[in-house]
Amino acid sequence: MAFSAFATGTAKEQAPRRKSRIALLLLLPGILYLMLFFLVPLVSLVITSFQQPIPFGDIGEYQTAFKWENYVDVVNTYGEHIFRSFGYAILATIFALLFSYPLAYFIGVTARRWPLVQNLMLVLVIAPFFISFLLRTLAWKSLLSDESFVISGLKALSLMAPDAHFTGTPAAVIFGLTYNFIPFMTLPLYSTLERLDTRLLEAGSDLYSKPSMTFFKVTVPLSMSGIVSGVLLTFIPAAGDYINASRDFLGGTGTQMIGNVIESNFLVTLNYPAAAALSIILMAVILVMVTVYVKRSGTEDLL
Amino acid sequence: MTKPLPEDPFIRSLVIQAQRAQFSRRNMLKGAGVGASALALAACSTGAVEKPKAAKDKSDTDKIVRWDNWALYLDVDDDGHYPTLEAFEKQTGIKATYTEAVDDNNTYYGKVKDQLKLGQDIGCDTVCLTDWMVDRWIRFGYTQELDDAMIPNKKNLVPELANVSFDPGRKYSLPWQGGFAGIAWNKDQLPGGLTSVSDLWDPSLKGRVGVLSEMRDTMGCIMQDLGTQIDGKWGDSEFSAAIDVLQTQVSNGQIRNIKGNSYKEDLQNGDTLAAIVWSGDITQLNFEAGDHWAFSLPSKGGTLWNDNFLIPIGSEHKKNAEMLINYYYDPEVAAQVAAYVNYIPPVAGTKDAMMALDPDLANDQLIFPSDATLANAHVFRSLSSAEDQKYNSQFQAILLGA
Predict the structure, then answer these.
(1) Do A252 and B213 touch (CB under 8 A)?
(2) Angle, nearest 10°, between helix axes B105-117 and B131-140?
(3) Among A12, A113, A194, B213, which is most buried by a count of CB atoms within 10 Å?
(4) Would you call B385 and A256 a contact, using CB atoms and an 8 Å cutoff?
(5) Which domains does chain A have, with CATH numbers?
(6) pLDDT tens digit string along B84-101?
(7) Is any Cβ of chain B less than 8 angstroms from the Cβ of A259?
(8) φ, ψ for residue B22 (rounded to 5)?
(9) Residues of chain A positioned with their CB less than 8 A from the CB of B262
(10) SS3 A264
């Protein structure tokens, strides 16, 4: 770290030697909280994922076992849903990034001269949070229904086939995911672009760089930390989202994501081991993808 | 997969006992390997086969009763008061708490099942759930036996519902309201109307048809359309034939979506023009959003279901709950409720009481069905645990597109 260059050697050695009981005491609630509400449920989830049905048992009755085949079974049965979840999440993340970057750039850089505009635009980005996520998604569902003015307008313009519909299609689910996660992408991008030193851009053009080259060589690398945190904040919840893809919201039977499969196995068929195994697979895949992504974008410091 | 459970209860209990002895030993060995904390967790997560014990009744000293029910399922006035429930409080001096806590049989079960297994209080003294879920609660021993002496009005129960397969003699449950699943369509767009489930598969309705995510209602209607008696003897082949129909219609895009309560929005916004629906909802929808929809039982038969009162095993106010149930089995009271909820009351004499209250409603076939109407609606036969799991996963697989 750059800061360590300024630190004196003595201060550096002193830090670990100071055994502060107060610091430990202050940490205790946090550690207990994590133990109780993260570690214990996680262990319980792992155990559940290996359970097997009680022989001659009733629906939803399982016992401890080491039935690793549960994992094979769920991958075979729901492999398509696992791929679909990550596919949708990746697409939604890309669309959210493409939409948010210009927006964040405008708010954080272009609009610097007009603080009022800057603040108003930020409010507009955050304002949807004042309304429940479920209500907003439901509102989209009726805005995009077959008889709505949006869809009938598109049909009148021959941009959509007369018998085509939007709700219940993959496009609707990806649209919903993108819409719902745009603020999570915009805010981190804004916070890094806000600090962008515009003199560097001037320097770029002074050195005969085209605007596009300045953008990719200067602006993007400088805003990388914002991009990485925006992508993580969007991709992780989007992959596990089960509201947008739910049949009751924007999805249909052909768009079910891993979250919907877990819900169905847990609540309806009471297949707890399958639900637990899927949850663990979801966590593991996200963890691997995020690690690879963060390593490759060279921003390990963020974690 | 589990082998099917022997149907004979005696043999079944013997098998379970034998298995329990064998497997608890194996659990101990496995648990020791995983470590002490894991063992403790395993103990929690292993399905307990022991039935929980009923809680001690404190009704005499603690004059309260807590009732969990579905939304829009009890008469309510504009100020949010429940007139019949307040009359009950005045009559008995018992303070009643009414909560619209049940949104779905499955999510409600998911919320309370762990307390039920331990015989703990789930925060209500009586709850109304659908037949098949009540079947599960009774099978697991999650309900307290009703004391007939406390419910003299039980004599008013309509005879057709007195002996149901999941609760012969109604020892643990009593119906609250019933209803039909049948077909509904948009009267403006489909003036000709529909008569059978096969009409839903008409090419002109492609992509504009909805069906319910409640397996017994959707499958019950389709199976009857294929000629199966759903309350009689049928098995895998009949169910599979209906699953194939559903699968075909979902894959070719005829069926737009498979939904629970939210199907009403789809009818309202025009995504679906015709659907398999619940009778009372259409009455309410027509009332709220203009008279645009019609409901009918399919010519080859619709399904009939009931939601039933039961007393959870952990309730400490059993007697109070029984007094509440008894109160709602008074035909006068039942008529007041039916006038609001528009479902079928299970209380004999309600029609006469309704005559005085609202003669129009007394002649409504969906509230007071005639014998001819009832002959066209059937109860989905109760499933064994193994069938329940098998059929449910087949149906869910279609819902998930798997």
Answers:
(1) no
(2) 10
(3) B213
(4) no
(5) 68-302 (1.10.3720.10)
(6) 999 999 999 999 999 999
(7) no
(8) -65, -40
(9) 248
(10) helix
DSSP-H helix ranges across B253-330: 263-269, 279-289, 318-328
Q: Residue A131 has what DSSP assignment? A: S
Is A78 at the interface with chain B, CB within 8 A?
A: yes
* ipTM for the predicted complex: 0.80
CA–CA distances in Å: residue A88 to residues A93, A101, A251, B239, B300: 8, 20, 12, 34, 42
What are the distances in angstroms from CA B177 to CA B21, B87, B121, B260, B278?
A: 43, 20, 25, 18, 13
For residue A63, the chain B residue with the least C-alpha distance is B46
pLDDT tens, position by position, B186-203: 999 999 999 999 999 999
Distance in angstroms (rounded) separating the CA atoms of residues B336 and B358? 10
CATH 3.30.930.10 fits B64-178+305-369, yes or no: no
User: Is the CATH number 3.40.190.10 carried by domain B179-304+381-399?
Assistant: yes
User: Inter-chain contact A54–B23, Cβ cutoff 8 Å?
Assistant: yes
Chain B residues whose beta carbon lies within 8 Å of the beta carbon of residue A56: 2-3, 5-6, 12, 15-16, 19
CATH code 3.40.190.10 region(s) in chain B: 64-178+305-369, 179-304+381-399
**Is B401 in contact with A138 (Cβ distance < 8 A)?**
no
**Contact across the interface for B45 and A165, Cβ inside 8 Å:** no
Q: Does A62 touch chain B (CB under 8 A)?
A: yes
**Chain A CB within 8 Å of residue B292 CB:** no
pTM of the full structure: 0.83
Q: What share of chain B is helix, strand, coil (3-state, %, to 5)?
A: 45, 20, 35
Query: B311-322 in b/e burial notation, b at 16+ Cβ within 10 A?
Result: bbbbbbbbbbbb
